[in-house]
Amino acid sequence: MNRLDPVTFSVIWGGLISAAAEMGVTLARTAYSVAVREGSDFSTGVFDPQGNMITQGDYSPGHLGSMAFAVRRMLEDYPVAALAPGDAVICNDPGIGSGHLPDVYMMCPVYLEGRLLGFAVNIAHQIDIGGSGAGSQTITGIQDNFQEGLRFLPTRCFVRGEPVADIFRIIEANVRVPEVLGDIRAQYTANMTGARRMEELARTYGPSVLHQAMDRIIAESGAQMRAAIDALKPGTYSFADRMDDVGPDTEPVEARVKVTIGKGRVHVDWAGSGKQREAGMNSFLHYTAAYSIAAIKSVTLPAAPQNDGIIRTIEVTAPPGSFFNPNRPAPCGGRAVVSHRIYEVVMGALAKAVPDRAIAATAHFYNPNIGGVDPRTGRAFICWESIIGGVGARWTKDGVEATSSPWNGTNVPVEIQESRNPVLIERVELIEDSAGPGRYRGGCGLRKDLRLLADNCTFYNLGDRQIFPPYGLAGGRPGGLGLTLLNPGTPRQRRLHSKGTYRLGRNDLISWRTSGAGGVGNPFMRDPNAVLIDVRNGYVSIKAATTEYGVVIDGKTLALNLTRTRALRARAKAGGKKTKERVPA
User: Fold this and answer.
1) Is 547 in a helix, a strand, or coil?
2) Which residues share a beta bridge with 340?
3) 89 has which bridge partners?
4) Per 3-state DSSP, what percentage of the chain is helix, strand, and coil (rounded to 5)?
């Protein structure tokens, strides 16, 4: 066996990280759907022969955290002896994979001269997988997972480089749009890219050295993670929040967690949370674990590549039959709406252990779908949207506007949406006074207005934080609440539920307004010049500058009045609360 020197180890580790990243680039550039190509709703990873994650692309925690569990389970149905070069196995079972049917995993074995090197794996959110609603993410009227679309247990879809025609025929017969078939083929192309990069490393250094490096990556990552956990304050920390509801006229979902830190390990326990619900948004345990792990890693080794060595240090549990560990066949199509809450509840507990590393709650996103027939082509269309507000404030910095957290999604470009679907985007803007006030304010909410240019469309909304706002930390204020309006500013205006299903027609306008992100620290300690800049940028109104921050700004000149600001803040400090002052004309 060749000796693994430090330089070789470093080059191989970098090469494997690069392979996973290149797989992601390939997938994004060869995919057909907006969800994958523009929304970045996919992830990639490289695994060793035993099914352990070695490296991953810098993509979605919900995919990557669950991927580490899914591959080993897929290998139970397709052991190495049953696989051959060029094979591909797909799986979208919610309990095995990332928690809902649109997310399709694909695992491909990688060989060099007959020797197994490992596996190239990716997951992509298919824009449709059948079921009762376009986009397969319906919340309301769903009693079980059988209503939500095609479910694949681990199933071979490519054999020695050739697609299995019957599998693709089944998919084609059950999905609403042909982009799905193209995206599955793009997944295979991406895995073949990763396979070539792994083969090149094995040819250069030898398969044995490659496997030595994989083992060492896991060992060193695990050691670094245990050391990082040991540097945290040991103890058990609790936090609780709520999902607004699971659809119109339903009760909130309790989200309660206890995070126990000690002896190089972290245990995240979701006992005490709500029971599973008859609505399409239950979170299967792998998905709950994925975002719990993401929060832990954010305050320990945020810059380190994630792999199995890091994941092994974290245990995530939830009672069977609970919302965060439902029993099959619990419906789960819209479980993406839960991702923020999982991360934020764990982050809220961690804020008690490492407050300087935590962030406030992020502006919740909307991930709706609109289905119908495009009058320009006579074909079915699915308009998949991603409307992303700001990131929560950090201990020393403001939140960031219109940026996803804790995952890698992106706001879909206006031009792409309009060119592909019968819609017109009439407005995209940040929402004034939506950011949670603080010494460091949260990111602003985002407004997006979309007008339909087709009749007989079905709109499946998917959002939250219209009742319970994103929390602030250390005296920071919550962000503003979200809202969805139909035909705002007209006699037909009405408020829509964040998880409702609606039948709409030509010229109807949907206006999404995400919540704002939470702030950190006392708002009356914010730098007055920073408040002035926010006012000039339209993030904060002159009135809110005075009432929320104790900063007086002239309404005509937009000049800062430091004398009156200091006096106002002094009165507020003396009185133990903020003092309101009439906004200058």
Assistant:
1) helix
2) none
3) 107, 156
4) 35, 20, 45
3-state secondary structure of 34: helix
Residue 554 CB neighbours (<10 A): 13
Cα distances from 328 to residues 39, 281, 535, in angstroms, run 29, 13, 51
Q: In sequence order, which residues have a C-beta less than 8 Å from that of residue 140 and are 6 or more positions away?
A: 247, 248, 279, 280, 499, 500, 501
Asked if residues 172 and 182 have their Cβ atoms less than 8 Å apart, the reply is no
pLDDT tens string 202-256: 999 999 999 999 999 999 999 999 999 999 999 999 999 999 999 999 999 999 9
Of 11-15, 104-108, 335-339, 571-575, the poorest mean pLDDT is in 571-575
Residue with token string 């523009």: 38
Name which of 154, 184, 181 is nearest 83 in CA terms: 154
Nearest to residue 152, comparing CAs of 190, 104, 85, 188? 104
Tokens of 326: 């439902």
Q: Count the Cβ atoms, other than its own, within 10 Å of residue 308.
A: 22
CA nearest to 333, candidates 63, 550, 128, 31: 128
For tokens 């950190």, what's the residue? 520
Tell me the three state secondary structure of residue 73: helix
Q: Nearest-CA neighbor of 331 among 101, 65, 92?
A: 101
List of long-range contacts for 242-246, beta carbons under 8 Å, 24+ apart: 242/467, 242/468, 243/281, 243/337, 243/338, 243/341, 243/464, 243/468, 244/464, 244/465, 244/466, 244/467, 244/468, 244/498, 245/467, 245/498, 245/499, 246/139, 246/277, 246/279, 246/281, 246/499
The secondary structure of 287-350 as a DSSP string is: HHHHHHHHHHHHTT-TTSPP-HHHHTTEEEE--TTBTTBPPTT---TTGGGGHHHHHHHHHHHH
264-277 residue pLDDT tens? 999 999 999 999 99
User: What confidence tier does 579 reach under pLDDT thresholds 50, 70, 90?
Assistant: very low
Q: Is the pLDDT of residue 2 over 70?
A: no
**From CA 341, how far away is CA 339, in angstroms rounded?**
6
Contact 396, 478 (CB under 8 A): no
Backbone phi, then psi, for 554, in 5-degree steps?
-70, 130
Alpha-carbon distance of 411 to 398, in angstroms, equals 20
Sign of dihedral through CA atoms 301, 289, 60, 237? negative
Are 503 and 457 within 8 A, CB to CB? yes
Distances (CA, A) of 567 to 419, 560, 561, 572: 55, 13, 10, 9
Question: What are the C-alpha distances in Å from 96 to residues 30, 105, 256, 402?
Answer: 26, 10, 24, 32
Q: What is the DSSP letter of 274?
A: P
**DSSP-derived 3-state class of residue 565:** helix
Strands 314-317 and 265-269: parallel
Distance separating alpha carbons of residues 546 and 243, to the nearest angstrom:
32
What distances in angstroms separate CA 89 from CA 116, 164, 268, one per listed residue?
16, 11, 31
Q: Which helix (H) or strand (E) holds 535?
A: helix 528-537
